[in-house]
Design a protein that fits this description.
The chain is mostly helical. The protein has one domain. The chain is built from four helices and no strands. It is elongated and about 60 Å long.
Amino acid sequence: MSMVLLPLPVWAQDIATAGSKELLPRVPNWLEIWLHGTARGIEIVGVAVIVLGAIGATLRYVWQLLRSGSSAAIYDAYRASLGRAILLGLEFLVAADIIGTVAVEPTLENLGVLAVIVLIRTFLSFSLEVEIQGRWPWQQTPARKAEPGRLERNP
């Protein structure tokens, strides 16, 4: 039985000749510049979300302390607001890492670094979510007392 070999498509030839380090062929220079800028912009947004969220949560906390005095509920609300800001900022930073690592330089080494970064940030996000909610994600939310005139719906 004879075997007929068809020529490889261009993208497959690029992968085959790219060497063992690169997973995908290099992107065009203009696209690489755009992706680097996009990743950097998303990183800046992530940091800004964390900083502005922390400032906003702190100002709201101080304002509520001045208006009503010290309270555990005010402190819990402050921690929850701060945690939400950090969680949202982490989501932006993970997105920037994915773009910067996989789209720009898709090597096995960079992919490994990305995996470690995503694992660490996922653990941080998980820990913050537990702190904010006060329960494990797989636990059901505590039942709320029904208010008069309000019907409870099961999701």
